[in-house]
Amino acid sequence: MGKVIQDGRVYYLDLLPLGDSPGVEEAFLYREWFMSPLKVLRYVEYGRRPLEALKQVEIRRGDRMLDLGCDWGYLAMLAASLGAEAHGIDICDRSIEFGMELSKKNGYSIKLGYANATAIPCQDGYFDYIFSIEAFEHFFPAERPLIMSEISRCLKPGGKLVVTTPNRFGLAEIVKQLLGKLSLARKLIPMLPSEPGEDGFVPPGTSRGDRMTNKPLSKGEMAALVKSAGMTLESSRDFVFVPEITPNVLMPLARLLEVVLEKIPLIRRLATTTLYVASK
């Protein structure tokens, strides 16, 4: 437990594979992103985004954290490695099962469970921190006010919410949404968003028929949601420029260019991801 793989300015937990575990299905995002031979997928989803989120708070031993939309629980394992009492919920029940088995195999004591973010299973004021990494865009717009209200209920006074979500007006999101309308492009680049209807789609890793959507928020929409739940939006900033289709041979150059672009305020507005920090 606690071993990491250092890779420049990011690091990853050095996780032992689960191996043969009858009845446990390998999580889609673990297989296709964390273990992908395309290094950029792990870098963006399990390097930059979770580490930037964790930098926004100072986790002390025993602090309670929740990952909302945790999938197989990587962020919860990261937080547990820092001493947190780590929890996660998701509608992908099979991914939850896989994450619990993988965390046990690697010595991380975390608590993952199947639940909908509209009804978080905890008592009022239980958590010091709530995180949501690339999940808010998948919540149906009509449910987002209730979800934010639930987040506020579950946070302690002074507790913090940290969210990363696609920058709605970022260059990558605009291109992905346009390409996602083309069936041929979706076949060539599987990670492109599809064109979900109002009823959304069933994500990989769920056996219960729960659905999600793919509709990124604007900064104004996020600010309004936070305010409606009685919380204060402390900051927001954009980051990540490495395209998710970058070949391995170009990764060193892409990461160097990303460092430069993130330091230029006008260009930074076109970054892929927006990070929000709010407090109760």
Task: Describe the 3D structure.
The protein is of the alpha/beta class and 280 residues long. It has a single domain, classed as Rossmann fold (3-Layer(aba) Sandwich), CATH 3.40.50. Helices cover 34% and strands 21% of the residues. The protein has ten helices and nine strands. It has a seven-stranded mixed β-sheet with strand order 5-4-3-6-7-9-8, with helices on both faces. Strands 1-2 form a two-stranded antiparallel ribbon. The longest helix is centred in the N-terminal third of the chain and has 16 residues, at 39-54. The mean pLDDT is 91.
Q: SS-based structural class?
A: alpha/beta
- Approximate shape: globular
Q: Going by CATH, what is the homologous superfamily?
A: Vaccinia Virus protein VP39
> What integer value in Å does the Rg equal?
18 Å
Major sheet strand order: 5-4-3-6-7-9-8
Average pLDDT confidence is 91
Number of helices: 10
Written as H for each helix and E for each strand, in order along the chain, the element string is EEHHEHEHEEHEHHHEHHE
Question: For the terminal residues, how far apart are their CA atoms?
Answer: 33 Å
CATH class: Alpha Beta
Largest sheet: 7 strands, mixed
Strand content: 15-25%
Helix content: 25-40%
CATH topology: Rossmann fold
- Low-pLDDT windows of residues: none
**Count of structural domains:** 1
Beta strands, count: 9
Examine the secondary-structure arrangement and name the CATH architecture.
3-Layer(aba) Sandwich
